[in-house]
TrEMBL record:
Domain called Oxidoreductase molybdopterin-binding: residue spans: 228-379
Species, as recorded: Phytohabitans maris
Designated name of the protein: Molybdopterin-dependent oxidoreductase
Residues spanning the membrane: 66-85, 90-109, 115-136, 152-173
Alphabetical keyword list: Membrane, Transmembrane, Transmembrane helix
A Pfam family that the UniProt record links to this protein: Big_7
Region (Disordered): 469-500
Alphabetical list of InterPro entries matching this protein: Ig_E-set, OxRdtase_Mopterin-bd_dom, OxRdtase_Mopterin-bd_sf
Family annotation (Gene3D superfamilies): 2.60.40.650, Oxidoreductase, molybdopterin-binding domain (3.90.420.10)
Length: 500
């Protein structure tokens, strides 16, 4: 057996068993203390804005999977190198493992809310990796002899098996420790102020056009959480504190006992590119934030409400927006169900008119009254604007450039949004020609998107369709193309089609 192959196999086996064992231990020390998750979390928290935007543009809502796969591939390459070096001198191996162990320990310990036990998975993993690497690389350097070779390969197989059993076992155990049972047990109260019915005609029923109400399953998900926070409603509390006259702590039962309102609100992500799909419309059930703030009595100058989640993420919302009478909710229900875990179970915030990164705190446990001058929420030091009102936007859903169109009438359709201002007009043009007014569908309120359609007499050849919206204040969606960073993309969505 070639030395390179042997060293690489030994290194990868040692790394695999370290990660597998750590995964298992993390069942007991907390999912965020597993080295891959902890290191991944540090990466997520420190990637420069443009790289984060690149990841979202390239991998969409699979950005986390991409990060994990990339990390594992890199780690395997390093492990192979360390294994190969260990064949020359085991101290290279020891140094390599110590380095990776230290990165794992440091990452786990510096995650928000981590206790000393967070160091255990990486420490144990590194220790076991050291022993495995030593055993697999000791003995004759050249495995010329068939018996030696067989012994080595058996060793690798045993280690790989142990890695798989502990890793998959850990995964299995941790999925049993989720809050999905607690979620199923939640009985949502009946709203004292129900959502208005969706008017007939809100749904144009055009193929490819996004439905007026987005199902929970297809609702976009964006957050920094590599493992979903499992927040038990039994022990959940919401603290409203900071610069208030009257701090409040609420349990989940106390929250559910309050008068509930239900509203359709369209949530949008600031990272959404023009034409992108990081937007969705749902029926949210919850308690008006305004009522809780009125009870807490913010002090003068407390112009920012910082939402803080169970995993330490923060967003900053203008206090004035939360108190101006719009339907800002501490939501417990989404489309008639308890919040799905990935959308913030048991409680999240929803604020009509603001991008999610400044308002829509999932797994929320604190609302802290402070000022914009005194505190920067998570995305602000990372280059995003502290203020995030949603920009007027419109999107063409049908036709798509991949469609085979034939000459004659074609239904052009899409959605437009300007939450809490409302959409007054949507216009479409072909090949830079005159703007033509589209027909607006109905909508529940100015807090949701609206569907639109326009009948096009398509002629053979290549054509460019473009759309722009005007909000109810008369502001026309600007043509100038700007990236999502720092406060939301601008520009007109266009679709190039081929008519046969
Ligand atoms: N705890 C937590 N809440 C969060 C985030 C996050 O990273 N962590 N991301 C925000 C962002 S950027 C957006 S756009 C919305 C997305 O909500 P959704 O995943 O339910 O669609 O959640 C917001 N709430
Ligand atoms: Mo977002």
């Amino acid at each position: 057996m070639r030395n390179g192959v042997r060293g690489a196999l030994a290194g990868i086996a040692a790394a695999a068993v370290a990660l597998g064992l750590a995964e298992f231990v993390a069942v007991f020390t907390g999912a965020r203390s597993a080295p891959l998750v902890a290191v991944g979390g540090v990466v997520v928290d420190h990637v420069p804005g443009p790289i984060k935007q690149f990841a979202i543009d390239t991998f969409g809502t699979h950005d986390k999977t991409a990060l994990m796969v990339g990390t594992v591939v890199l780690l395997a390459a390093f492990a192979a190198l360390i294994g190969w070096l260990s064949l020359r001198n085991i101290w290279y191996g020891v140094a390599g493992i110590a380095l990776f162990g230290a990165i794992g320990v440091a990452s786990a310990l510096t995650r928000p809310d981590a206790g000393a036990e967070a160091a255990v998975p990486a420490l144990l993993g590194a220790a076991v990796a050291g022993v495995v690497l030593w055993r697999l690389t000791s003995g004759p350097t050249e495995l010329g002899d068939a018996a030696d070779r067989r012994r080595f390969l058996t060793g690798v197989a045993v280690v790989a098996g142990a890695a798989a059993v502990s890793g998959l076992g850990g995964r299995w155990l941790s999925t049993r420790r989720t809050v999905s049972e607690a979620r199923k047990a939640v009985r949502l109260p009946v709203p004292t102020s129900p959502a208005p019915a969706v008017p007939a005609g809100a749904e144009l029923g055009v193929t490819q056009l996004a439905p007026y109400v987005t199902s929970n399953r297809s609702f976009y998900r964006i957050d920094t959480a590599l493992v979903l926070p499992q927040v038990d409603p039994e022990t959940w509390t919401l603290r409203i504190h900071g610069r208030v006259r009257n701090p409040i702590t609420l349990t989940f039962d106390q929250l559910l006992a309050r008068p509930m309102v239900e509203r359709y609100v369209t949530l949008a992500c600031v990272s959404n590119e023009v034409g992108g799909d990081l937007i969705g419309n749902a029926r949210w059930l919850g308690v008006p934030v305004k009522e809780l703030l009125d009870e807490a009595q913010p002090l003068d100058g407390a112009d920012q409400v910082v939402g803080r989640s169970a995993d330490g993420w923060t967003c900053g919302t203008p206090t004035a927006v939360l108190r101006d009478g719009r339907d800002a909710l501490l939501a417990v229900g989404m489309n008639g169900e308890p919040l799905p875990v990935q959308h913030g179970f048991p409680v999240r915030m929803v604020v009509p008119g603001l991008y999610g990164y400044v308002s829509a705190c999932k797994w929320v446990t604190e609302l802290e009254l402070t000022s914009f001058a005194d505190f920067d929420a998570y995305w602000v030091p990372r280059g995003w604007s502290a203020q995030g009102p949603i920009k007027t936007q419109s999107r063409i859903d049908a036709p798509r450039s991949s469609n085979n169109l034939s000459a004659g009438p074609v239904t052009v359709a899409g959605v437009a949004w300007a939450q809490h201002r409302g959409i007054r007009r949507v216009e479409v043009r072909v090949d830079g020609g005159p703007w033509q007014e589209a027909t607006l569908a109905r909508s529940v309120s100015i807090d949701t998107w609206v569907q639109w359609s326009w009948r096009w007499e398509a002629t053979p050849g290549r054509h460019r369709l473009q759309v722009r919206a005007t909000d109810a204040t008369g502001e026309v969606q600007p043509e100038q193309e700007r990236p999502p960073d720092p406060d939301g993309a601008t520009g007109w969505h266009s679709v190039d089609v081929e008519v046969g």
